[in-house]
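hiii, so i know i said id send this last week but things got crazy w the move. better late than never?? heres the sequnce for the chain we talked about at the cafe, plus the structure i predicted for it. fair warning i was half asleep when i ran it
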Amino acid sequence: MYDISLKTIVRPENNPYWIVESISEAAIKKIASRSISLRSCIELWGNGGNQQDFHKSVKLYPQENMTPYLNPEKSFKVIVETFCKHFTQDEKIKKIESFSYLPTEGPVNLKNPDTTLMYIEYYGLDPNTIPEKPYQYFFGRLIADGQRQLIRKLSLKTRTFIGNTSMDPQLSLLMANQAQVQDGDLILDPFVGSGSLLVAASQFGGYALGTDIDYLMLHARTRPSRISQKTRGKDESIASNMKQYGTSSYYLDVLVSDFSLPVWRSDMRVDAIITDPPYGIREATERVGTAKRQPVIEPHRIATHIPSKIDYGLPQIFGDLLTFAANHLKINGRLVCWFPLFREHYADDQIPLHPCLKVIANSEQILSRYTSRRLLTYKKIRDPQEDDTINDSNILDFREQYFGQRDESRKERRMQRAEKRAKNKENWEKGIREKTDR
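okay and structure toks below
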């Protein structure tokens, strides 16, 4: 999004520290201003696998590079951070004193220092087998923190309006980043629910627009999702969520709409579509229609009329979603969505494809032993043509598989219980026979 290139020095798979080379500090600050997964960024002054090599590495760091940040005019503080191990304050002070060779001539300021130095000890990822000595030591100057505070800010525990399937704040923010939402972008969620994805997009300056077929959800008339809450509050709505986080000016509106029926002008364009289509498990997958497949006739329909609905399978949902994205995304605009599946059945050709959309990211979130979902990011590369076709022939209906697997599991459990009862009966009868023989 910022056209920043980084040279990777060390990108280990089994620890959380990634060492890169950047052309400027400003570039790193730009990345940190958007990154949800990034804890913090430091300018590395030294590192090592043991204490001797580590301190030697810090001492070899050029003094002229330290001087702008460690001089009599600059206040400072040192943060001691340990990964997977806890130290007392006295132990931390002893570790700080081991850096007495640094040219720290300025005053100490623990609240608002000019320079913050970080000392990190890494003890692995397993809290049950903590080694006596750390695997790695790191030391350097703090440049910037990531945006993890947004996860706490947008917590569902304190949000005004939530539903049963409200998206976790961290995932919502990651999806907004996958869509590369920038200030002034127009963002649409066609399965908006309680608006979690719009809330996340508005944090990055995206103007939020949503639709959903569930009238009761959009008007906050469904059963409350919180156990302690008996009825919905009068102030509950997506608009009130935006107001809660100070982004009311980025809220456009949400509409009650059946996604399978076009409601937008053909020339309507958005910068990104961010959505989590219903899977038919906790929320129904429905569209307007009747079991007899007769067309819905609308003349003289009264305002309070709620039309009948029929099932809207996952293959049809994704077919419509990709077609909609091809028609209404701007060129280079992005579609970010979740795609549920059974892990054992996954193959790359199971992902729905469209000639106008290019898959640029595909990552897995494991939900259970059998199921997962894929976070898919598509980029629009061209406008649609008449002969465009969607490759969705290999899409399996997740809902049918899910309930079929559950039915099979129940059947297996019944058979196991029956076998156990039969075995217990057999053992009991065997014991009676042995008693009789004696």
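btw Residues 398-437 form the longest helix (40 residues). thought thatd interest u
miss u guys!!
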